[in-house]
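Table S2 (text version). Query chain:
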Amino acid sequence: MKSINLSGSLRENVGKSDSNLLRAEGKIPCVLYGNAASQSHFWAHAYDLKAVLFTPETFKITLDLDGTKHTCVVKDAQYHPLNGAMLHVDFMLLDPAKPVKLNLPLEFVGTSPGVRAGGKFASRMRSITVKGLPNQLPASVKVDISKVELGGVVRVKDIVAEGFTLVAAPNNPVAAVTIPRAMKGAVAEASK
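Corresponding structure-token output:
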């Protein structure tokens, strides 16, 4: 998993009016959830959060809160329904000894023989939920499509997972090579 540094400042006042004042200054209210006994309310600059949120990648974040460093990941982000502005971000503290569930992006590797034959590649999923120890999670989950023929499908059970487990249902389709309409007509005429 890729790493990034982020800094924030603890908040004294927590509430709707204080959150709105922070947003007006270009700061986003955030919460760091850790163990069940503690949670930290803080703010971070919206500009710094864009590098973490507006990307398909998942980052391991080293969060500096007034001199105290925490290792965490983004758990959830809330956006305004009309203008898409960031409203709130939740972070989850990482414990190296506890498994964590995360969405990781899919990376398709190889060249499909079905695509070389004229088929069209269609990905059905962009990311997948995995569970594993934070230090063993990769930056992305690699999906080999080098054996997918025309009309073939890659399913979750076909993905090789090393050091983590896939949470999705095994029969869910991940990607497919579809037969274009022009080729379907040619195949139908050839079979007559």
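Notes on Table S2: The CA atoms of residues 97 and 133 lie 7 Å apart. The chain is about 15% helix and 45% strand.
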